[in-house]
Amino acid sequence: MKVIGIDIGGTKILGGIISTNGNLIKFKETPTQAKLGREVILKNLFNTIDELIDEDTKGIGIGSAGRINFDTGVVEYATDNLPGWTGCKLKEILEKKYKIPVVVDNDVNAAAIGEMWLGSGKGYKSMLVMTIGTGVGGAIIYNGELIRGSSWSAGEIGHMILYPEGRQCNCGQRGCLEQYASGTAIYKEYNELLGEEKVSSAKEVFELYKENDDIAMKVINSFIKSLTLSILSLKNIIDPEVFIIGGGVIGSKDLWWDKLKIILGMDVNVVPANLGVRATMFGAAKLILDAIY
Ligand SMILES: [Zn+2]
């Protein structure tokens, strides 16, 4: 028995044939070509599925960026990272084309399910998964179930207001966590403090931090502070067994993880995600497996 798990991101579509016990049988990676709009994204999605599907495939699980209606499989809202994606009736389109059951969920929700199934969340029933990359995403699992929210936007912790009247966020609010604790925020803050455009990625700032660069120290310390503030607030609201932190910034965790743990103290159980970029793909497969069995 096997299903297909798919992760639709702004730059790549990752697809895999995955067995009931989580073995990856075949893997396929395709550029999303998101800038070219919905029809091209769909074409690349179909190509990915066509490469993987055979008569034994029992269903397709999709994790997509954006706010996804899990009941209908419609993309309720997607940012400009996926132009034209808003309103796409993904479940309907795929079920019509492939004649097998399809589920669609938000990519971070799917990643959280993946981590609970095969990654750092194994053995836990309630967890908060944070992904820190270009932005900050989140997903909440309580008693083994995803909390999706009344309008499919639960767990959007990147837009919790951390500093009232703070930096302008692209969501319209000011002072969102994402403006302080994302990879983007890290390198932008560095350039701002320096007064010139020196770096273009968080990775470069972490490199400078290693060399005891004054500004990098300041930026990374403030990143850790914002992250701990958000985790402590969320702990008081949700009280999960574990916080799982993933996303691109986790690649530099050796430089900041110990500090984070010390500030958080013994009462907060925080662990790094360990499925990496394939968490969403595996989680999407698990979602369809759960839906058909
Ligand atoms: Zn925001």
Automatic annotation (TrEMBL):
Gene3D superfamilies: 3.30.420.40. Signal peptide: none annotated. It comes from the Bacteria. It holds the Pfam family ROK. InterPro entries: ATPase_NBD, ROK, ROK_cs. Transmembrane segments: none annotated. Belongs to the ROK (NagC/XylR) family. This is Transcriptional regulator.
